[in-house]
Amino acid sequence: MKENFLIHIEGTIVADDVKDVVDLTTVGSFYEKDSKFYICYNESSATGFDGSMTTVKVWERGASITRYGKHRSCLIIEEGATNICNYDTPAGSIMLDINGVGVKSKLGAKGGDLNLSYSLSGSGMLISDNTININVKEM
To answer: What distance in Å separates the CA atoms of residue 56 and residue 29, rounded to the nearest whole number?
Structure first.
């Protein structure tokens, strides 16, 4: 699998009325298999997960974001559904409710756009509202 795609990721987190934006541009892989799209890239120190690899799998009404390496996690975002996920951070592991708000994919054979929106809850309390916008372009 060649890393011949430019991947731009903009994530927005709103917690306690404070907005934080993370912006990352990297090189990675993009392909389609069994009617699903896959976006794969290596994390960097900019994200705090240096040494990990992330795979975003996209299907018709959902997506999963799986991080492999030292800090493993798998978030499943399905529009209108709640999924419970384990999320490893440098501070430790936590269980989260992932409440899918929206999944909009305009991905095709040569790349495109993916927009995800969801909220994170733990122990019945809202932690944050989140959006992730990913643009994939062939280099």
So the answer is: 10
